[in-house]
Amino acid sequence: MSARRRYWLMKSEPDAFSIDDLQRVGTEPWNGVRNYQARNFMRDGMQVGDGVLFYHSNTAVPGIVGTATVASKAYPDATQFDPKSDYYDPKSSHEEPRWFLVDVAFDRKLGRTISLDEIKQHADRLGEEFALIRRGNRLSVFPVTAAQWKHLLSLE
User: Fold this and answer.
1) pLDDT the model gives residue 81
2) pTM over the 0.85 mark
3) 62-110: per-residue pLDDT in tens?
4) How far apart are alpha carbons 106 and 140 in whole angstroms?
5) Residues 66 and 108 sit within 8 Å (Cβ to Cβ)
6) What Rg do the C-alpha atoms of the chain give, in angstroms?
7) Which member of 23, 67, 97, 146 has the greatest number of CB atoms within 10 A?
């Protein structure tokens, strides 16, 4: 018996890595996450086959722009060991890595962006625990319930 499929929202700035970039490459390591809680979600929670809502952040119209699938188990993020990388962490070592990532595979682009403003209009349905609309949330990776996943994609 396999574990039930889980769902996640993963944010990326489109100038750094967009849904179009993911579509072009097919599968990509989700590197550069430097928040312990987001890291823990990837390292401890994500399983191959889990669904991902791909969210463009820090853009004129932030919102959900596509879906993807978790394509690997978590493994150490190599950028933490590279002094030339923006994500270098001198306190991390190969023996005791601090930062982990998963590979993410493209599924599809949405027919339109489901904007943050539109998502906020559904706060009652999504619930106050939905991290994207909670004040002060800065996580780039967080869980989404099956009901939230279904509702958000129904907005397309």
Assistant:
1) 97
2) yes
3) 999 999 999 999 999 999 999 999 999 999 999 999 999 999 999 999 9
4) 18
5) yes
6) 15
7) 67
**What pLDDT, on the 0 to 100 scale, is given for residue 1?**
44
Residue 17 half-sphere exposure, CB side, CA atoms within 13 Å? Answer: 16
Decide: 69 and 49 in contact? Cβ < 8 Å.
Answer: yes
Residue for token pair 């890291």: 39
Token pair for residue 94?
């190969």
CA 42 from centroid of its chain's CA atoms: 9
Are 63 and 114 contacting, i.e. CB atoms less than 8 angstroms apart? yes
Q: What is the 3-state secondary structure (H, E, C) of the chain?
A: CCCCCCEEEEEECCCCCCHHHHHHHCEEECCCCCCHHHHHHHHHHCCCCCEEEEEECCCCCCEEEEEEEECCCCEECHHHHCCCCCCCCCCCCCCCCCCEECEEEEEEEEEEEEEHHHHHCCHHHHCCCCHHHCCCCCCCEEEECHHHHHHHHHCC
Q: What token pair was written down for 148?
A: 């939230």
Spatial contact of 142 and 45, defined as CB atoms under 8 Å apart: no
Q: Which of 109, 114, 89, 107 is nearest to 99 (CA)?
A: 89
Spatial CA neighbour of 102 closest among 44, 23, 20: 44
